[in-house]
Amino acid sequence: MPFLVSLADGLPLEDPSYWIIASRRASGLQPNTLSNELRFLAHLYVWGDARRIGVVERIREGRFFTLQELIDLVDACGRPVSSVAAQIPLGQSVSDLTKGRQSKRFVRSGEKGKRLSTIISFVEFISAEVLLSLAAWPVRRDRYAESRDLCLSLLRGHKRGASRHSKSNLNPPQGLSSEDSERLRQVIVPNHPDNPFRPEVQYRNYLIVRLLLELGMRRGELLGIKVGDCAINASSTIELHRRPDDPDDPRAYKPATKTLPRKLSVRPELAELVFKLVLEDRNVMVGSSRHPFLIVNHRDGAPMSLSNVNKIMEALRTRVPGLPIELAPHLLRHTWNDEFSVLATQKNVDPEMEIKFRMYLMGWRSEETARIYLRRTTIRRANETLNEMQSKLILPFRSHNGPFS
Questions:
Q1: Cα(283)–Cα(294) distance, rounded to whole angstroms?
Q2: Are residues 234 and 271 in the same domain?
Q3: Among 3, 26, 174, 259, which residue has the fewest nearby CB atoms (within 10 Å)?
Q4: What is the separation, in whole angstroms, between the first and last Cα of the chain?
């Protein structure tokens, strides 16, 4: 369980710990997600220390933040935490600190939006406790609620602004090109002359890439698959489960299924590869009988770590000519979504049904995540139409001296 600790004494901060356990952990969020949210929340505390503002004291007293302070906090959320902590001298007023910001580096608007969302959640939770404690004093309660609502409303407005300016709206995520995808599928086959891996791990790595490409799962979901999750029969399936704090998992940094649990159909050829991995590869490794996980290290049979999956991708992109330098596990998830979009277009799948299919297969709760890839399809088809339209409108160019060629 992650906690936000004080640099002064190394102890967990009380209010963030209360929030992360009672609100966020209770919502079923995975430890990795909780760690990220605490890092986002740290921005609020670092900003408060830089401004000599006790953020929790302000919230509990009902003073919250002035408009100038809120604008400054939003600006701080758009910069690296090191910039807020190290480049802003302590003791200066907020008005002094609003000068000379042109040279400071900024983070992506999506990152800024996540920080603001986390801060909003924290302020809501801590202030809700205060609001409930004032039930016996209606006048004080109403005055506190008015200040609370105004503060949260301003923060939400800035959060929406960060979301609207996110680059993902203009450049939706995209996977490998068809040429790069085909190259990857070729070199990862065992015994291929360009396969960069030792013979004893080639089959395992081949299956890892196949599962990521053909099922579109995250690397954490891949490493969370247990042998019992694989039903190899006439209608083979692989189940992806959420297992926070799994007692069967000995890894210090446990892979997590961030998305919803789901059962995915597996075609016979891929199912046979999984079956072969279990019988001929995994079961002969010393140490693999101590745990139920499908993907293991060849050295000791222990469950594979997240960093090892990254190393597999690093070896592919650095040692295989023709593969892009940005090759990473999550890029294969984007590749799956690109191929799904093409297939949906070919089969004339209704856009709303495409969203529902994608939400289930990817395990997403929100339609908005699925619509990101639908926007990419829209952009691609719109540009194809534009290019076709331009080709029909081409007219010969004539200069004063005759036709231009």
A1: 10
A2: yes
A3: 26
A4: 69
